[in-house]
Amino acid sequence: MPAAPSKRLRGQKIARNFIIGNSAVQLPHPLFIDPPSGHTKGWRVYVRPLPNGPDITTWLKKVQFKLHHTYADASRTIESANVKDGCFEIQETGYGEFGVELRLYFPTESGEKAQYREHYLVLTYWGSPEQQAAQEAKNWIVSERVETIEFNEPTVDFAKTLTSEEQFNWLKVKKGRGKGKKPEYVFEGEIDPSALLPERAPEGKDGSGMGAGAAWSQRYERQVISQLTSSEKILQGMIEEEQGKMEERKRRMEELGRAVKLKG
């Protein structure tokens, strides 16, 4: 019997963005060997992490794909992401487009119920004439969208996983290997990915760092909060001033009403 989920963090919310989509090619194609007769398209439907984002398996345990009823074993559950790009995916061939139902399952320690999403399988060229021509030339169609899942008041154990630095380890690449030494795994790029905000944003090429290029940091966050607090005080003062004017107008109208009655 699995252990009961840990206590929840009241008033906390953690969100995760991810991508749902499909790719498709015209058959014949080397990725799809010996397709059934009449099948003209090869396709792949997937749930994948954002580029340079956290490991999707830190919060997603498995994905159930429900295909068109004409497929054998139309309901398929994928319990592990592929190593290459971290996707939960299925591959098939066919000839028609349809809606694919997806059911997302989360780790036991999350205490979260499965959530549903849907993706319409796109097998034909789309977009502007230039985009369609490029897709036809490459024999490669991609249809994707970004989705968001919010974990409201996550359990303590699940929150630790969602905020750990280890969730970015899948982005590390092997760097050389000296004689008799173990390979070193490092992040590529100027800034290492992290679950935490940096104290200061990196300096931009123009010399500006705080908030430059929408780069967020703890310092920039404090500045924005300070500005919002100041604006809130100003707004509250304006509201109180307007309420005072409204009371004064009300008093004058009442006096005018009494004066009219006396004259009558």
Description:
With 264 residues, the protein is α+β, with helices and mostly antiparallel strands. The protein is built from three helices and ten strands. It folds into two domains: 13-160, YEATS domain (Immunoglobulin-like), CATH 2.60.40.1970; 197-264. It has helices at residues 129-138, 156-162, 218-263, and strands spanning 13-26, 41-49, 62-66, 75-78, 88-94, 99-105, 115-120, 141-152, 173-175, 184-186. β9 and β10 form a beta hairpin. It is extended, with a radius of gyration of 28 Å.
Question: Could you list some keywords that capture this structure?
Answer:
four-stranded antiparallel β-sheet, alpha+beta, single chain, 264 residues, 10 strands, Immunoglobulin-like
The order of strands across the largest sheet is 5-2-1-8
Main beta-sheet annotation: 4 strands, antiparallel
Radius of gyration from the alpha-carbon trace, in angstroms: 28 Å
How many strand segments?
10
- As a percent range, the share of strand residues is 25-35%
By CATH, the topology of the largest domain is Immunoglobulin-like
Summarize the structure.
The chain is an alpha+beta fold and 264 residues long.
List the helices and strands and how they pair.
Elements: E1 13-26, E2 41-49, E3 62-66, E4 75-78, E5 88-94, E6 99-105, E7 115-120, H1 129-138, E8 141-152, H2 156-162, E9 173-175, E10 184-186, H3 218-263
Antiparallel strand pairs: 1-2, 1-8, 2-5, 3-4, 3-6, 6-7, 9-10
